[in-house]
Design a protein that fits this description.
The chain is α+β, with helices and mostly antiparallel strands. The chain is built from 22 helices and 23 strands. 37% of the residues lie in helices and 15% in strands. The strands form eight sheets. The protein has a five-stranded antiparallel β-sheet, sandwiched between helices. Strands 16-23-22-19-20 form a five-stranded mixed β-sheet. Strands 2-1-5 form a three-stranded mixed β-sheet, with helices on one face. The longest helix has 38 residues. The N and C termini lie far apart (156 Å).
Length: 687
């Protein structure tokens, strides 16, 4: 009996000692756990390591462009409210059925997994909760017992840091779903060409089953395996009471078809321009409806132009200072030229700068539309500017000179006002110039001897339409549109009225009744060698610019602004979404306080500049055409071989073979003469 009592006492003592040791170990473990918890807080910043695939959308959130993130993964995070309810239920059923009941680690799942693994003699289940899977993806550790302990610890911390719905949303936006797809939105778009919120029960179950083995169940490659996995997901949902037998039957009966969604790319040049400005993407000011209409008209216009012609178009909302449409080339899918954004290419703008040269003179009260300007032969530093038709008009009103885009008056105005002021106006309205613009362009700057791109040029015309206020051009609505006063309102209105369709009829609208032509102003331009054809204008609501040419810079006879670009511009201003319905109010004339001086050529001695003295002309079909020209434009009387003769408006003489003396006399009695010869073709060919 004593022995029994003694043994019982020893057992009791050992039990007490065991309990004490257990309690001590428990306290120590708890202490270590608390210290670790406090000293190693959850690295919340690692939850932001997953990059987002940038998406560029239009003003109404319609996608224009989507590209992979910096880690080459497709990831489009969306909120739980933007996911199908079936997707959330299916994921919980197959991945973590007690998700809303545990604290980040599921003890029951751990016990069950341990039993399964021991019975099988190998690892069949890891008992990972959604929390643990997020932590594993966050640190990307190999699957080892040590890693499992760390994941469990972090999972408990994550459960304290975030709500259950936030954890579920994070998982659904970061889990792998095959290839380089991360998150349910990217998977839904790739496999079913629809967003995650539009998934059916069967589609949601298929996607929910992928993260267990994304490469093995990837439906676009292994659809049969994916369907077997889907059946498992649906059975789990049934067992969890999430769906009924009838819903299971309907889901199984629904045929799954994989329709990979095409990579969206609309308004590609505008979208890439926006992405370059903001690499994270976002909602832009591009209006897809306007963009489509502009593209349609541009393609129709291209068919009327020579083969291999390229064009670019920019449309700017004047009030919002926002790009609403942009075309960079005729075919964005072209592997070579399609990559070039012609709206950003710097080219010679031709005569499209002239309105701002005149504005510089208007601004300083030295010129208005009724002022007299001169279109006469001049020479500056060996350069003798010519008009497009190579003829001169003489004395005329400034408004007519600008409408006819005469070169000499623009050069003389720039000379009188000063290049520095002209360059200052160009930069003020939004056309950036190189530091050596005055030296490099000289007076030829007035006729386009400096480079500009279509986007800046169109924005400059938007400044005219905004009564002289230049604003920072936006492609994202949340960008700040800083503004500065560039020109006086009355100057902009005067220039716009001179160049409006009320003063001349736009090309392509000659037969349209005047009352049906909506108000807009415009100016065309043609660069030297006919390399670039331009038409830019505004209707006080939108500013539109059109460029036509070839990216390699070779010219063509067809590339004339009035012929190749103006008709498209007129069609664009006639679009219902872009036209204006009210003419601007009439403008008062600019008061001229210090008129521009007449050109110095008016005070030079009269001289015949064509034909040259002693020049010989060859008869073709019995006569030769001799072009005549003096350094004066008006008040000239002509004599041929001593006889008074009439020289027509284009100053040509048609003459048979012979020797000639041509003499001219002005009203002051000054005269000039030259001798020339016209010979027959047989004489010219004689040895």
């Amino acid at each position: 009996m004593l022995m029994i009592l003694k043994k019982r006492t020893e057992v009791a003592e050992r039990l007490k000692l065991t309990l004490k040791i257990t309690a001590l170990v428990t306290v120590l473990c708890a202490g270590v756990f608390v210290l670790t918890w406090l000293s190693l807080p959850f690295p919340a910043e690692r939850l932001e390591k997953w990059t987002v695939s940038p998406v560029i959308s239009d003003v109404n959130d319609r996608p224009l462009l989507s590209i992979v993130g910096s880690d080459d993964q497709w990831r489009h995070p969306v909120g739980l409210d933007q996911m199908s309810p079936w997707l959330k239920k299916a994921t919980i059923a197959v991945e973590d059925e007690r998700f809303y009941r545990h604290f980040g680690v599921d003890p029951l799942a751990v016990v069950r997994a341990a039993g399964q693994n021991v019975a099988a003699g190998r690892i069949l289940s890891g008992a990972s909760t959604l929390n643990m899977q997020i932590c594993r993806m966050m640190d990307d550790r190999p699957r080892t017992p040590k890693a499992k302990i760390i994941e469990s610890f972090r999972a408990l911390q994550l459960n304290r840091l975030m709500s259950k719905d936030d954890i579920l949303e994070l998982y659904l936006n970061t889990a792998p779903y095959g290839g380089n797809l991360r998150g349910v939105e990217a998977a839904s778009l790739r496999y079913f060409a629809r967003g995650a919120k539009d998934l059916s029960l069967g589609q949601a179950a298929l996607i929910a089953g992928l993260p267990q083995s994304p490469s093995r169940y990837r439906p676009d490659r292994y659809l049969e395996a994916a369907m077997k996995r889907r059946h498992i997901v649906l059975r789990r949902m049934l067992e969890a009471g999430m769906i009924t037998e009838l819903q299971l039957k309907h889901a199984n009966a629904h045929r799954i078809e994989i329709h990979p969604g095409p990579r969206i790319q609309r308004a590609s040049h505008a979208a890439w321009f926006a992405l370059k400005r903001r690499p994270t993407g976002g909602r832009t000011t591009i209006d897809l409806e306007i963009q489509k209409q502009v593209e349609r008209l541009a393609q129709e216009h291209l068919r009327r132009l020579p083969k291999d012609t390229e064009l670019a178009v920019v449309v700017i909302d004047i009030a919002e200072s926002a790009i609403v449409a942009m075309i960079g080339s005729g075919d964005s899918a072209d592997p070579a030229d399609g990559l070039v954004n012609g709206a950003l290419a710097k080219r010679s703008p031709g005569s499209t700068l002239k309105p701002f040269i005149y504005a510089a003179a208007f601004e300083t009260s030295r010129l208005n539309g009724e002022s007299t300007v001169y279109d006469i032969p001049i020479s500056r530093g060996g350069w003798a500017p010519l008009n497009f038709d190579r003829a001169f008009t003489g004395q005329l009103a400034a408004a007519e000179a600008l409408q006819r885009s005469l070169n000499v008056p623009a050069v003389l105005i720039a000379e009188a006002v000063g290049l520095a002021r002209c360059c200052g106006i160009l930069e003020a309205v939004g056309i950036p110039l190189p530091g050596d613009a005055q030296r490099r362009g000289g007076l030829a700057l007035a006729v386009g001897a400096i480079e500009a791109n279509l986007l800046d040029l169109t924005n400059a015309y938007a400044t005219l339409g905004r009564d002289g206020v230049r604003r920072y051009l936006r492609i994202f609505p949340d960008e700040t549109a800083a503004q500065v006063r560039a020109l006086a309102p009355e100057v902009c209105r005067a220039i716009s009225e001179i160049l409006s369709c009320r003063q001349r009829r736009p090309r392509g609208m000659e037969t349209v009744p005047a009352q049906d032509v909506r108000w807009f102003m415009w100016k065309t331009g043609t660069s030297s060698g006919r390399r670039d054809a331009w038409a830019v204008g505004h209707n006080r609501r939108y500013a539109i610019g059109v460029w036509v040419g070839r990216f390699r810079g070779t010219g063509r006879p067809a590339y004339v602004g009035a012929e190749a670009a103006e008709p498209l511009l007129a069609e664009l201003f006639d679009l219902s979404n872009l036209r204006t319905y009210i003419d601007p109010p009439p403008t008062a004339p600019i008061r001229v306080r210090r008129p521009l001086p007449p050109p110095r050529e008016l005070n030079q001695r009269l001289r015949i500049t064509e034909p040259a003295a002693g020049e010989t002309f060859i008869c073709l079909n019995g006569s030769a055409i001799v072009h005549t020209q003096t350094n004066r434009a008006e008040g000239i009387t002509w004599f041929l071989n001593g006889k008074l003769t009439r020289i027509d408006a284009i100053k040509n003489l048609t003459l048979p073979a012979g020797q000639y003396e041509l003499r001219c006399v002005d009203q002051a009695g000054q005269s000039s003469s030259v001798n020339f010869a016209v010979i027959g073709a047989e004489v010219a060919d004689a040895p």
